[in-house]
Amino acid sequence: MDPSYTRDFLWYKDAIIYETHVKAFLDTSGDGVGDFAGLIEKLDYLEDLGITCLWLLPFFPSPLRDDGYDVVDYTGVHPSYGTLKDFRRLVDEAHRRDIAVIIELVVNHTSDQHPWFQLARSAPAGSPERDFYVWSDSEAKYKGVRIIFTDTERSNWTWDPVAGAYYWHRFFSHQPDLNFDNPRVLDAILEVLRYWLEMGIDGFRLDAIPYLVERDGTSCENLPETHEVIRRIRADVERTYPGCMLLAEANQWPADVRPYFGDGDECHMAFHFPLMPRIFMALRREDVEPIQDIMQRTPAIPESCQWGLFLRNHDELTLEMVTDMERDYMVLAYAREPGTVLNVGIRRRLAPLVDNGRHRIELLNSLLFSFPGTPIIYYGDEIGMGDDVRRPDRDGVRTPMQWSSGVNAGFSRADPAALYSRPIDDPVYGYPAVNVQAQLRDPSSLLHWMRNMIRLRKQFRVFGRGSMEFLSAGNRKVLAYVRRWEEDTILCVANLSRHPQPAELDLSEFAGATPVEMLGYTPFRVIGRDPYVLTLGGYGFYWFELRQRG
Ligand code: BGC
């Protein structure tokens, strides 16, 4: 760890996070799998893009039956990706560019190949070793608890012939849940935490955090005992590495996510899961209501906390946090192609979700960058990469980064048959058409546009820290909101319709101010007492800085 490296404790509030998997970024060893050395080589690209935090998907030793979320050793790295030394070098090199690094803490479950599980299944019933996991003689325990991977699992219990008992798992049956009623489990996890923190990382995504503790007669989600575990984790981090950020993956309704911030004594950040599908719904319905409704139902959070905002990630576009009717609508609107629905969600990347519509991609990113929270970009979405719904599980959205139109998309020099995954090669989204090299050369590319937006966003702390109020635009297709923080006031107006739309805003509160359009620094008409009239092109948006006279 570089001793000269320091960070403001609230760094995550102004961050731009980039999510990627080591395996998918760049392969330098030529074995067909991306590695740490490749990621290091591409840090200049990420710095140039403007991101300030790298979120790495799991890179630990694993049988890879759940892309690394099935961990067998929490303190190592999978040999395909390099060595611990390479990982340390990555952290140092990222820090040299002022890029923070956050990693996964897969806290709810391990692989069934993990030595803890192997020990547990043969240890005597009731022993602390056996009690590392959750066992039962019958499947009736915790009856009614929902199944998450509905396409593969029929029960949250699986029979283990070695132990002669059932073990509990909220995800795949090869991922037994750890038992947080056993104090040794938390001790072991805290050791893992300290181990990585000592290597200088800046935070953890706490995977599948709502499911840590089980109790009969409950949904086994969001229990007070689970929050107690998180408070203990936070207290430990606070004592040893203040400034380390904890990001909750709690796919829950806003009111149930709110407790994961606690009184500022649980997680620093949490993903805003319900917002994401509603952005897509609002776009398809050309109606601001789903967005306004969910934002109005989003409770206030402690001053030091932050929402994590995203459009797409490495999983399916989850539809767990919508009503049945909304789910039907989303499937009809976005998942007509056979094979697109997976579990309770849609396995697509951003560009194909919006039929590769450049204006829609820009509009959605403008919301991502201007809503209250920290934006998270999924690798490849900055160039509009596509997907392949015919591949198993979520593999179709985890394909190699498309660097160039050369062999293997410039990702690897391995024999194509040796690649961990074939790059996307269809005529629209394939690497000959969509790649970084071409987009760097093309000043009108999506990549350039993203770079500019990130630069702009970083100049205004109000986006990461300010309040948000919706204004009526007198038109249900136009979303208008004001962001304020300290001296800064920004007005955002977004047209969710494919056709031009008028907007009439009551801006009398800002009378005398000049709205300066932020992409071109163009001053618009001074605001008066009368309704402020704007016209927006199809899927158009404005960001205005409201400048007071004098
Ligand atoms: C991760 C998934 C993973 C699951 C089970 C989730 O929170 O995002 O990719 O499959 O945990 O490990």
Brief overview:
Helices cover 26% and strands 17% of the residues. It is α/β, with parallel strands linked by helices and 550 residues long. It is globular and about 80 Å long.
The CATH class assignment of the largest domain is Alpha Beta
Count of DSSP helices?
16
What's the number of extended β-strand segments? 22
| Rg over alpha carbons | 24 Å
Q: If you average the pLDDT, what whole number results?
A: 97
**Global geometry:** globular
**Which segments are poorly predicted (pLDDT under 50) over 5 or more consecutive residues?**
none
> Mind describing the biggest β-sheet?
8 strands, parallel, barrel
Q: Strand share of the residues? A: 15-25%
Termini distance?
48 Å
Strands in their spatial order, largest beta sheet: 1-2-3-7-8-9-10-14
Mind telling me the CATH superfamily name of the largest domain? Answer: Glycosidases
Based on the structure given, which CATH architecture of the largest domain is correct?
A: Alpha-Beta Barrel
**Molecules bound to protein:** beta-D-glucopyranose
